Amino acid sequence: MTIIVNLDVMLARRKMRSRELSERIGITEQNVSLLKSGKVKGVRFETLEKICEVLDCQPGDILEFRPEPDTQQAIKKEP
Amino acid sequence: MSNRNNHGPEPLQRIRRLSLIMQVVIVIGAVFAEAGLLWVWVSPSIVENVVVARLQIPLSDVTLDGPTRALGFLVSSLPLMVIFYALYQAFLLFAGYRKGEIFTSEASLRLRRIALGIIAAVAMSPFVQAALSVLLTAGAAPGRKHLVLQFSFNDYLVAALGGLLLAIALVMAEAVRIAKENREII
After folding, report:
1. What's A3-77's CATH class?
2. What residue in B sits closest to A43 (Cα-Cα)?
3. What's the ipTM?
4. Who's near B91: CB < 8 A, 6+ residues apart?
5. Cβ distance of A31 and B184 shorter than 8 Å
6. Which residues contact B150 (CB under 8 A, 6 or more apart)?
7. By CA distance, what is A46's nearest residue in B?
8. B6 in contact with A at a CB cutoff of 8 Å?
9. CB distance from B184 to chain A under 8 Å?
10. In 3D, which of B155, B104, B128 has the Cα closest to residue B37?
11. Is residue B120 part of a domain?
């Protein structure tokens, strides 16, 4: 996965527990856990908006694009 | 895996009520179908009025002794067995619906099995009728034996219904895939 979810980092910075975040954004703690581990297919704008609001951050603070070496090479080879 | 309806409890309650009704209808239908078939083949006069009349064979060429009727019952039971399989799948499908299991791979699989059961039963129908015509006229004099091949408009309608159900089952499988994907988006 080249999109990294840095939600755990943001939670640590804000000194907030997953349970509190889940309660404040209205999704289950299990889903927050899945989101933290990156084991999801996608994040709704609605969820992202709530997370950003509660954690007082930008989407870029939570999501990060980190290209895999193979992908980078493939892009470079393209004319 | 269940997928609860997001539009409040009322639509799901309606599905549950309808599913319970359908389960009762299925059980009654299955019991009546088997009892009806047995009732037809027990009495020679009913075989004459129902089976022979439908096959349009002259009564003079038909043998209706015990063994022939017993074999006739067994041959007629073949498509009924396939229908019973489809009814059993429908019973399980509605049992799942009652538990709120609507967009599941099991539900779409059962729908597909029901459709295939209906199509198989319709496909068997002309062969069963042909077998019955041969069986009932097996004791007739040479030259008076019959082989009846029939395909009625009703058969066509039921086959079309089976095809429609199969298409819905495939659409359901796609809906299940989308629902699963949607659950993975938070």
Report:
1. mainly alpha
2. B186
3. 0.71
4. B23, B26, B27
5. no
6. B55, B126, B129
7. B186
8. no
9. yes
10. B128
11. yes
Across the range B35-47, mean pLDDT stands at 91
CA distances from B128 to B81, B119, B148 (A): 13, 14, 10
Contact B185 A34 (CB under 8 A): no
Q: Does B10 touch chain A (CB under 8 A)?
A: no
**B39 min Cα distance to partner chain A (Å):** 58
B 163-182 residues inside an 8 A Cβ radius of A: 181
Residue A31: closest CA among chain B residues belongs to which residue?
B186
What pLDDT shows up at residue A78? 64
Tokens at residue B79, please? 């498509």
To test the contact with chain B by mutation, choose from A3, A34, A41 the residue with the greatest count of B C-beta atoms within 10 A, namely A41
Instruction: Locate A49 and state its tokens.
Output: 């908006």
The number of domains in chain B is: 1
**Is pLDDT above 50 for B179?**
yes
Residue-wise burial string across A23-36, b where 16 or more C-beta atoms lie within 10 A, e elsewhere: eebebeeebbebbb
Amino acid identity for residue B51 in this structure: V
The domain limits of chain A are 3-77
Give me the pLDDT at residue B8, please: 53
Please, what sign has the CA dihedral across residues B43, B49, B54, B60?
A: positive
For residue B133 the two structure tokens come to 């015509």
| Whole-angstrom distance, CA of residue A15 vs CA of residue B125 | 72
Among chain A residues, CA nearest to B180: A41
